[in-house]
Structure formats: structure tokens, C-alpha cells
Amino acid sequence: MPGTFNAFVKFSEVQKTYDGETLVVKNLNMDIARGEFLTMLGPSGSGKTTTLMMLAGFEVPTQGWILLEGRSIENMPPHKRDIGMVFQNYALFPHMTVEENLAFPLKVRKLGKSEAEARIKRALDMVRLGAYAKRRPGQLSGGQQQRVALARALVFDPKLVLMDEPLGALDKQLREQMQLEIKHIHEDLGVTVIYVTHDQSEALTMSDRIAVFNDGVIQQLAAPAELYERPQNAFVAQFIGENNQLNGKVVAMNGATCKVEIPGVGDVQALPINVEGVGRPTVLSLRPERVKLNPLPGSLPNVLSALVTELIYLGDHVRIRASVAGHDDFVVKLSNSEGVAQVEPGALITIGWKTEDCRALDVP
Known about the structure:
- By secondary structure, the protein is of the alpha+beta class.
- It contains eight helices and 20 strands.
- The chain folds into two domains: 9-233, 3-Layer(aba) Sandwich (Rossmann fold); 242-361, CATH 2.40.50.100.
- The chain has helices at 48-56, 98-108, 113-126, 142-154, 172-189, 200-206, 224-229, 234-239, and strands at residues 9-17, 23-32, 37-41, 63-68, 71-72, 83-87, 160-164, 192-197, 209-214, 217-222, 244-254, 257-262, 266-272, 281-286, 292-293, 302-313, 317-324, 327-335, 348-353, 358-361.
- The longest helix is centred in the middle third of the chain and has 18 residues, at 172-189.
């Protein structure tokens, strides 16, 4: 998608520092398409929220340009940007009813009474809260308050909706329910959404694309499946989904594959995704569900011994934690249909995987 459209939102060479020395956002370049659901994902302090606040107008870039529909907005006040905002703490007016909260952004924009009433009804029906218009926020549950906050952000038909950790205060079941609701509302309206979270499963569930931030830099920007299946560096591999890592050294390059020596274990075959060359250290990345238990002799190119340390039953699958090549936190994930009758803590087993499931990445 990048480079194939005229960007609806564009960050160009954007930097941000608060003290004049430390850059919180470093040389950010990012294009976002009209109607896209883009999530900025990363740990605390990675620069994702600062990037969102610069787009909203609550922070000013130290350097660079932010364009909305091709127009520079760095010096435009927040209320002139036509952007809806949803925050984690809801930010509702407690003394106002639900419909009065929704009416507020419409009054600021001087909409007529009948038009405002129609928009409020439509927005409340969208979040299934039509019967709660006369209640105050304190009379609603956390999930209902977040729905009101979402409706208020959408009621004036903004060009763009920004969401900053909007589901962080909700319990797991309600959070997962709200993820799907927000995703479906986005699909129905076609509005552009930029979403900030540190929850990788939330990002994978909701997004068209995800920008993975770390230390003020986008590490990779891609669709969810691309990030999970083809991470470009060790940080992304570790941050998106569960991942096993083994340290080694590249000892040979064989075109589309490479041979990596793991100390005390031997050589394994991997895909050279981001390696510096023969003789250089690398980190092997391997998803737990791609590891096979006790493979038949000769059936897989990579086979290692493992000492089982823990077995965890999780209903639809079983997690085996094992010690492999000096790593005590190696995980194998098996469905119950694969059978683990012979596996128990203390057992010595063999594990194996395909070359294409093992990625040789840079050392973080």
C-alpha cells in the first residue's frame, strides 16, 4: 500500500524532543491512506503517543511536516483540524447527559437543532446506546462510557479519528468485544482511524496495517499477517506474537538459505532475512506453533534435543516449555489433537522445524 496512493495523512521527516537533547520521535516518515485503520504499536516510551498527539495538535513537531489531505497542519489549532479523539479515560463531561455530551462538539460547530438531533440519534444507534441518551456518565458501565466517547468522536463526521489506548481500562472480555465493535464501525463508515496501543493482540485483531515503534523509530510497517509471518528484525519478531529466539553465528550463505552455528548444539538451516554476513552473530526467530515434536528421522532439516521443564494445558492447545541450546524458555505449542502423552517434565525429547519457518535476524 505505501507509495501506491496519495497519502491522506503524511508524516515527513518529523522529529520531536522535549529537552532539546533526547529525540522522542526520530526522523519519522509515514503515509496513511484514506479509510485505513492504522495502529501505532510499541512499548511505553516508544514515541507512538507523541506521534498521535502531534497529529492531533496537542504537541508541536520540533522538525518536519505533518500533512492532512495534502495540507500542512503543524501550525493549525486542534479544533480546526476536524479530528475526532477517543481517550482511555473517556473524557466525558460528568454533569451532562449522554446526548448533551454528544451535542457539545456539534454546538461548537454551530449545527442546527434538527440536524444535531439526527446526528446524535444516528451516533447512539451506531454504538447501541439509543436508550441511554438521558443518563449521565456516572450511571453507565465502563464499556458503555467508552461507547459514548466513541459516538462523540464520530458524531460530527470527522475526517479522521484518533484513538489513544481507548480500551486499556476495560476487562479482557469487554476489551475483546469492543475491539470487534470498533473494527465493524470502521468498516461500516469507512472513516480513517489511527489507533495507539501497546497490546499486540489488539493491534493484530483490528488493523489494516501496523506501525511497530521502538525508541522513536518505526521498526516495521506492514499488514498484521506480514508482521507476524515475516518480521524484519529481532525486536518485531519478539514484540508481535510469541516467539522463540536462539543465538548463533552465520557460518555459510547458500543463496536463499544460510547455515547458522548454535554453540554447543550444531548447525541449523534458516532464511537470511537481516544478517550481516558469514562470521557475524545472528538471532534465529521461530514461532512456537511451527515447532514439531519428536519428528520422524529425516523428515525435517533441523532437529535438536530439548529437556521438558513444564507442561501447561490450555484447553485447545498445550504449551511445552523446554530447555534448548541453553535457553530455558523455549516454547512448543501443540494442539490437543497432536497428542502429548509421552511428554512430561524432565523428559528428553527431540524437536524439529522447516528451514522456511526459521528466520535469521539482526542482533538487537
